[in-house]
Amino acid sequence: MERIIKFWERCISWSHTVQETPTKLLSSLSRLACYIRSINNRELNLLLAVAPYVYVVHYYDFFYEELDRLAETNAAQVGLILKASIDTHVPSIDFEDRLISILGKLAASGKRDEALVLADLLKQIPGMTQIFRDLQSGHDHA
Length: 142
What we know:
By secondary structure, the chain is mainly alpha-helical. The chain contains eight helices and no strands.
């Protein structure tokens, strides 16, 4: 596990030394999220580094699945990571309702305001406007 994390860190460090951002590499590194069990500063930095690029090679569904898993115990950090991802690319669908699940977990953990902001950013996804209204009225969707 430590070797995977060190490899990931090395790739991120290297990506800062090249002139053109290696977006495909950063997107591919997002698949390593499955090796993260909890999010401390080290893991947060890795996930934030790849989050803006998950759409490049279409790994956002996998990434959101892992964020949904991690939101169980790390909701505040997952909210930051999800925001970093959708700031660069807003998906057109919510495959397997992963985003709805993440928003519900955020709201249930006391991060309702963050969940509302994210739901608003995701409003073009079918059904997300209703999720926004539900969150406003106090329903969590967890």
